[in-house]
Structures are given as structure tokens and as C-alpha cells.
Predict the structure.
Amino acid sequence: EKYKGLNVKNNLSYTPEPDIFHEIFGHAPFLFNKKYCKLLNDIGKLGCDILFNMNFSDDLKYHNLKRLQNFVWWTLEFGVILNNTNNDFEILGAGILSSIDEINNVINSISNKKKYAKIIKYDIEKVIFTCFDYSNLQDRYFFVNSFDLMYDSFYSNKDIFLYKGN
């Protein structure tokens, strides 16, 4: 039912559903970084707070969780660390690391060999309001100059995930 009406392409180089390969090759290496682990833990706690500890209507719970989901998608799943001066980059996103097609998409987009995807400077407000399509290669990647900048932006803007409505 989840993919009814969608043209989902499942092949050896791309699958829309996370699998054990994605978890081991995408997320597991980052689990040796204490800041990464703290961020994952705090994202989980924030999600639980939104669901259970905040006095939000169901619509506001959904809205705030969607913001949090977008943040995770465009950073920990499909984020890129980019040094603009010489186009050196590191892949931050587990969704990229676990897909040869996503890796090539990033490389080609950054190197301007082929313009598959936009490379957009990280801005937490843009990130949380940007929807994604998990059924295909990404058409954009947000880049940040360092993991620490993205990490700090999450903690200094936590209230952005706690929208209370007008």
C-alpha cells in the first residue's frame, strides 16, 4: 500500500527502504563519533517530547515531527560537508554512503560534470521546510561547512521544532 501508485525503482544500486546494508555502511561508522551519537539521541528525545510531553494538537505534532524528519533527512541521511574553496567534500549522509548511485549523483553535481542535483548551502530553516522524495535519487543536497556547524545549529534552534501555531 505504501508505494501504491508510485513508480518505485528497486534495484541493486538503489532501494527506497533502508536495509541492513544502509544501516551498517551508512550509519554504523558515524556511531564512533560521540557528537553524532549525542545528536541522534537528542533527536530521538525531541521526537518523543513532541509526541508525548508537549501539549500539541495532533496536527501540530505531525507538523513538528515533519520538521524534525526533514532535518534528519537533509543532514544525517543526505547531508554533505563541503569546502567551497577547492570543492573538497565529505559525505555526511548515510543515505548517500549506502548507495553508489547517490554517491555518483553527489560527485557529479559537486564537480559540475553533470547537473543531476542542486547543491544548496545549509540553512536550518530551508532544511526543515524542504520536502523530500525517498523513491528516487535526490534532486538536491544541502551542504554545511562542518559537522560542528550543523550540530550547533540544531541545538541553538531547537525551538524551531516546537512550533505552537498562531
The longest strand covers residues 140-144.
